[in-house]
Write a structure and sequence with these properties.
Structural class: mainly alpha
Largest sheet: none
Order of helices and strands: HHHHHHH
Number of helices: 7
Distance between the termini: 126 Å
Amino acid sequence: MIKSSLKKIRQLGQEQLTLHARGFWRYSPQMLMGFVIIAITFLIFPREPSFEFANLREGDVYMGKEIIAPFTFFINKSPEEYERDKKLAAEKVPPVFVRVDSIEANEIQKFNQFFAELEIIRKTSEPDTIRIKKLQELLNNYFIIIEKENLPLLLKSQISVSKKISYSVFKQN
């Protein structure tokens, strides 16, 4: 009796195993399809975290590390279009000025030196033609351009210019 009940239990266990195995294989195509979908999903999406380019907007100034494309790409534009776009992009970027105080002091010193030399030329008792030649040399040394008919004005001991005249002269140029 015990043997027969053990046999029945064994037979029931084997039947359940075969039913269980048959049930597993019966759903194998669906499980294979699920595995393939999961594998394709992992292959499609990037494995590395992407850089934060989503935060960049047109016209913003990027202050981070240099951005280099991970691949080479071609710009399908004519050379004229490309040069025009480069020029427009360069015009949109505001210029950056760096203040250097030593340059300011140097230029003020040159400015004062120019007027000191001009005063020496004014006070000499040489004829006007020689003084004008010296004045032209002085102006050339300092890269100052003045028309020849205005040179005698600089030789006068006192020069007074009203704001209206200087403004109108400036406006004409």
